[in-house]
Amino acid sequence: MRKHLTLLLLCCSFCLAAQIPVKYTLPPCGTAPGISPWLKDYASRPQEFVSARSLDTLYVGIQLHLLARDNGTGRFSPERVLAAFCQLNEDYAATGIRFYFKDDWNLINSTAWYQHANIPQGIDMMLTNNVPDALNAYFASGVAGNCGYNLPYAGVAVAHNCAATGDHTWAHEVGHALSLPHPFIGWEGKTYTTLNPTPDTLTYDYTYFHDTIDTQIPAPLDTALVEYLDGSNCSIAADLFCDTKPDYLSYRWNCDAQSNSTVKQIDPAGGEFYSDGTLFMSYSFDECQTRFSDEEVAAMRANLMTEKASWLTDVPTEGEITGAPDMLLPLDGENAPVSGAELRWASVPNATHYLIQYTRISSFIVKEFELVTTDTSLVLGNLFVDKNYYWRVRAFNHWYACTPFSPQQSFYTVPVTAITSPESDNWRCYPSLISRGQALTLEFGEEWQQQNLQCSVVDVTGRVMWQTPLRSSNARIRLDLPSGNWPAGVYHLILAGEKGVKTRSLMLQGG
After folding, report:
1. Would you say residue 194 lies in a domain?
2. Helices (H), 167-293
3. Between these two residues, 411 and 52, which has the higher pLDDT value?
4. How far apart are CA 201 and CA 101, in angstroms?
5. Three-state DSSP class for 74?
6. Domain count, the chain
7. How far apart are CA 144 and CA 209, in angstroms?
8. 67 Cβ neighbours under 8 A, 6+ residues apart
9. Residue 21: its pLDDT value, please?
10. Collapsed DSSP state (helix, strand, coil) of residue 89
11. 207 and 176: one domain?
């Protein structure tokens, strides 16, 4: 089931949007209440967890798993993956925790997991595909009816529609993975109301959410103390943190101009308060959330340096990417064959991957094609004739993904048989539609004459069909191709020399 691929191709993914649940119709988080044994131990003696690395940046490896239907459709698009990843690192910037892609994205085709309806299906998905020594994160259309959830022994899951720029669901679930509970722990599945007296304790069921898989279903109930406004029990109540004030709201809620809830709550002693909407671990709207508390940060960092130390790497292993790729072919506004057009761009220092997009809509609001590759060129299939296409490229690597796209360029598709005018340096190759054994004519401008060239012909997969040294001894020469046994299809002629590289697409007819 696991497929680690270099290429990720998604055509017309916009057609699927209407089938994905709208975010605010989903519960924010399916992670059940529970205080882990590790957090209980930490809360009883936090000063003993301070280490020499307390001020270091902690680099956490994430293994990303992208779910699709059985036929490969519906997968989270590469651009959205990178946007969500950048949002995650932005949300954690103040914590001194930084995430990187441990390995290439794992592409999984399984309709059952792509829209799994319950936690046991998610357990099966994670235990089947997890990679050791990493924070495993799964993106799917449906994740047990929630925006996200965390399984302490397995990984986090995030729904597609809860992972846009400005959405903090992924940060919230990673907080759970790093030991943090909700500030309103114990209220999950309950609705607070001032019509009833606030209890001193709450019971909760955390089936499926122990540190290990439950062998007893349902799991036994546990008890949480309700936190008081005066902080008198803050170190033993609710989430065990004293700098996250009481919160009894276990549903999505909006905040006022001071980022507090508009719903008043009353603690068991009669103290009145409003919940803090700035906390990522609350259920406030995304627009309210901005931070983890200092004590939450300290707990997450301690958890990484002890229980989750295998997720850490000492230093980045790939360098920073500071620019966008230069677009080489086709030139902006140039004609390109309707079948077999080649896109080529310059490599970017430290880049390991490139995201390529093309569309007939210049705003890129709809992408007809997206692909991630490690190469610096791409041969296209069949396009629509007599149309303007716009394309752009973005470089990234496992450590640096918040990078810009290149300025977009365009090309115009023409029939394969069309002979274009000579380029500015008078280079031309024709015909482009050939039969087996038919020769090509190459024309060279003065600058390209009397040059030693390397001539290659490759097929659409990049396989070299023929290669020979060539001397541009005249302004026009004949080039005989040994194409008698080549399959019909699209090929690319490449001439490389001291003056640069020239390419032309050829269509070899059958028969």
Report:
1. no
2. 169-177
3. 411
4. 41
5. coil
6. 4
7. 14
8. 75, 76, 108, 110, 113, 114, 125, 138, 139, 140, 141
9. 54
10. helix
11. no
Residue 86 has phi, psi (to 5 degrees) of -65, -40
User: Considering the chain, what percentage of its residues have pLDDT values greater than 70?
Assistant: 90
Cα–Cα distances in angstroms (integers) from residue 422 to residues 143, 294, 331, 385, 495, in the given order:
56, 66, 13, 21, 16
pLDDT at 246: 98
Nearest to 189 by CA among 146, 143, 138: 146
Angle in degrees, 0-180, between the axes of helices 294-305 and 37-44, rounded to the nearest 10: 120
Mean pLDDT of the chain, nearest integer: 89
Q: Are 172 and 51 part of one and the same domain?
A: yes
Rounded CA separation 349/358 (Å): 23
Least Cα distance to 503 among 388, 423, 412 occurs for 423
Q: What are phi and psi of 42, to 5 degrees?
A: -60, -45
347 and 405 share a domain?
yes
pLDDT value at residue 417 = 60
Q: Tell me which DSSP letter residue 300 carries.
A: H
- What token pair was written down for 456? 């290659």
Token pair of 19 as six digits:
């089938």
**Alpha-carbon distance 87 to 432, whole Å?**
47
Residue 300 domain-assigned?
no
**Mean pLDDT, residues 1-22:** 41
CB under 8 Å to 141, separation ≥6 — which residues? 19, 20, 21, 67, 74, 114, 115, 159, 160
Model confidence pLDDT, tens digit, residues 405-444? 999 999 998 876 654 555 667 788 888 888 888 888 888 8
Q: Which two tokens stand for residue 227?
A: 């936190």
Give me 255's structure tokens.
């905040």
CA distance 145 to 141: 10
Q: How far apart are CA 337 and CA 432, in angstroms?
A: 9
Mean pLDDT of the region 115-139: 97
Per DSSP (E only), the strands in 267-386 are 272-276, 312-313, 327-329, 334-337, 342-345, 353-359, 369-373, 377-379
